[in-house]
Design brief:
Length: 321
């Protein structure tokens, strides 16, 4: 496994990050433990989750993914694992049960710490913006957590470039902890939003980038084909998948990925991940798995280094997504 710094910080993280959204949703605790153990044994030291997982799936109040990770984490050396989680979604009833207010953040972090069975969170991220709360209030609350030792680094997810840069300016102006990481939705089949402005902003400001859904909800694994557009998958209902299923250009791009995978004797997913890892601004794509076999399929991706010609071929095939 390769390791790199998280943005401009000194924190070293694996080039692949294990996502915990499936834990407690599409895989049970025993399966989650096997996935976590295999990832850890392979050198992955970076695990990402969120307090709401799996609230919107099961109709409960969330926290199941954090709880599973916490029970697993209790069996491992804490200092060897980098835990990232997120705050913003509704976690309890009432007007302050969601959002990025000081009131919500200070309660939510204690709840996450309890579920994770740890006294600090390595990377605490705002899950998506909250228009009802001033940015200064959110950043001041996060700064309080950093100063208290409950959180070591902070980041954000699903922020547009203008908002990310505004938060950095406010942190600098008010001498507050700043976002050192961005979690965007980014893959070969969802390029435009990140590449238009965010990529340059993160590169310029030294922001680590940990994209979620780097395999386009499974589309970039090659399991979708022209003749099989409804494979057994929990992600078939994904909005991105629905847009790709009947897009001829998407299958032409998949043909390119298949050709390169065959040339390198690797799974198609390795090509999609290697393309992303070749970009200097990318820190670690977040890989999700609901089975041990799915995890095994992507573990070797960091060892694959594509040539400039191969990267150009992929780039041309996926322009416009």
């Amino acid at each position: 496994m390769e390791y790199t710094r998280l943005g401009r910080t000194g924190l070293k993280v694996s080039r692949l990050c294990l996502g915990g959204m499936t834990f407690g949703w599409s895989c049970d605790e025993a399966t989650s433990f096997r996935i976590l153990d295999r990832a850890f044994d392979s050198g992955i030291n970076f695990i990402d989750t969120a307090d709401i997982y799996s609230f919107w799936i099961q109709g409960n109040r969330g926290g199941e993914s954090e709880s599973i990770i916490g029970r697993w984490l209790a069996t491992k050396p804490r200092r060897e694992v980098v835990i990232a989680t997120k705050v913003r979604g509704r976690m309890w009833p009432g007007p302050n049960g969601e959002g990025l207010s000081r009131a919500h953040i200070l309660q939510a972090v204690d709840d996450s710490l309890r579920r994770l069975q740890t006294d600090y969170i390595d990377l605490y991220q705002t899950h998506y913006p909250d228009d009802d709360t001033p940015l200064e209030e959110t950043l001041a609350a996060l700064d309080t957590l950093v100063r208290a030792g409950k959180v070591r680094y902070i980041g954000c997810s699903n922020y547009p470039a203008w908002l990310l840069l505004k938060t950095l300016w406010l942190s600098d102006k008010h001498h507050l902890a700043r976002f050192d990481c961005l979690q965007p939705h980014y893959s070969l089949f969802n390029r435009d939003e990140f590449e238009r402005e965010l990529a340059a902003a993160c590169d310029d400001q030294g922001i680590g980038v940990i994209p979620y859904s780097p395999l386009a909800a499974g589309f970039a694994t090659g399991k979708y084909t022209r003749s099989n557009r409804q494979p057994d998958s929990t992600r078939t209902g994904s909005g991105l998948i629905q847009k790709l299923l009947n897009n001829d250009q998407a299958y032409v791009a998949l043909d390119v990925l298949h050709d390169l995978a065959q040339a390198h004797s690797v799974p198609v997913a390795h090509i999609a991940l290697a393309w992303q890892l070749a970009q200097p601004v990318i820190t670690a794509p977040i890989i999700g798995a609901r089975t041990l076999e799915q995890l095994e399929e992507v573990l070797g991706a960091t060892r694959l280094h594509l040539t400039a010609a191969e990267l150009s071929r992929i780039d041309q095939a996926t322009k416009g997504f």
